[in-house]
């Protein structure tokens, strides 16, 4: 982990721009406390610089609860080298949505699977580094971002204790199968009128997830219209499971 | 409103056994306050005596928020005269469920529509009486019970300001149509593995409800397995809308 800048924010919390798991990231840590802090991995759609204000707001919720929070740049996004194959798949997706055509599995696989294949090992390497830091080492939560990344990470990494998933993007069949292997408590957010995502597919994902304790919060409105009160519900869910 | 007994509970709150809207009921009121108290109508599956411990627990949540709460006996339940037609329809329903057969619309109509037709005017008459009491007169919320009663009451009575609906029983097509006329904020609870209710029908009901602000909370587990944390979510929903 290589830190390029750091500064204090809010009541002694620290924000660091660092290389985490080999890729650019941001780490927020609360002031030192007697017990190791839980850590929340903050997902996002890619583009750390653009997403920074919203990530900082979400990190502040974590810091207020005594948790650390971290965000990693996604493969192909922000200042990372773009993927021509992903861009082509994304263009196909947008053409299908614009034409009102169903989005076929081939497009979803080409767009999402390479992202999952690249991002999950990066997140796991970042976890290795983060959990070795002084003051960290409590349970790990996932919150939001590309849902297929969250599903696979929760399925394969035993350090993940709970996950908030936003059922807001297309899920490859392979990941839908992997969802059955997830066992940690889940809060799944769904925008009922999401213009870029299929409602039935999102409900199928919720159904497929193997966790005994899973809750779906569906709200009216489009992709970006998640109501403000859901941020409090996320806090309460994480508090129940990260302590 | 004719009161047969009353006694103090908890910090000056009052419980009254009364005839409300012409039928047996229980009313819980908080200690006098400067502003008129909001009122929550507590729904239940019928049988006030049997349901009393759980109703009291829910009423205590309301009282803690400064609300009054009331519950009415359902038509044909508890000490009210039974309905032979409803009993016959219920037997047909149980036979269909036991045999794994789909529950046809005819059974649902015979079981639920007469209940809705009888109960909604009783609830409205009870509201007339309750809102005229000293100390009451704030906004009215509905919480739980037979979902078709809640839907029709929310659709037809402008005094209802918000409703918590438990999508846990069969809904006649007529009530599904009426659902489009509901406009108040809604929290809809759904048990994902409800053994006595069709999941897709419950999702169709959520979709049909006309409210701009509606939230679905779906949890794993059977009909009676609503997680304890949903009681807090109900409190927060009512606090947002009843003040």
From TrEMBL, chains A, B:
One annotated GO molecular function = hydrolase activity
InterPro entries referenced in this protein's UniProt entry, alphabetically: AB_hydrolase_fold
**Alphabetized UniProt keyword annotations:** Hydrolase
Q: Which domain of life is it from?
A: Bacteria
Q: What is this protein called?
A: Dienelactone hydrolase
């Amino acid at each position: 982990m290589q830190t390029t800048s750091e500064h204090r924010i809010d009541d002694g919390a620290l924000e660091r721009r660092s290389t985490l798991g080999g890729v650019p990231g941001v780490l927020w840590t609360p002031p030192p406390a007697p017990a190791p802090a839980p850590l929340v991995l903050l997902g996002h759609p890619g583009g750390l610089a653009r997403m920074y204000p919203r990530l900082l707001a979400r990190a502040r919720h974590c810091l207020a609860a005594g948790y650390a929070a971290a965000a990693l740049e996604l493969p192909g996004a922000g200042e990372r080298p773009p993927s021509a194959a992903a861009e082509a798949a994304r263009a196909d997706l947008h053409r299908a949505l614009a034409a009102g055509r169903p989005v076929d599995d081939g497009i979803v696989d080409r767009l999402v699977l390479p992202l999952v294949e690249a991002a999950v090992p990066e997140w796991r390497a970042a976890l290795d580094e983060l959990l070795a830091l002084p003051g960290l080492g409590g349970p790990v939560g996932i919150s939001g971002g590309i849902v297929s990344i969250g599903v696979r990470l929760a399925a394969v990494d035993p350090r993940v204790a709970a996950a908030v998933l936003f059922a807001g993007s297309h899920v490859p069949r392979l990941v839908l199968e992997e969802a059955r292997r997830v066992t940690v408590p889940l809060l799944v957010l769904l925008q009922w009128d999401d213009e870029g995502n299929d409602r039935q597919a999102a409900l199928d994902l919720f159904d497929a997830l193997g966790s005994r304790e899973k809750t779906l919060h569906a709200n009216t409105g489009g992709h970006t219209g998640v109501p403000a009160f859901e941020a409090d519900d996320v806090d309460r869910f994480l508090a129940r499971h990260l302590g």
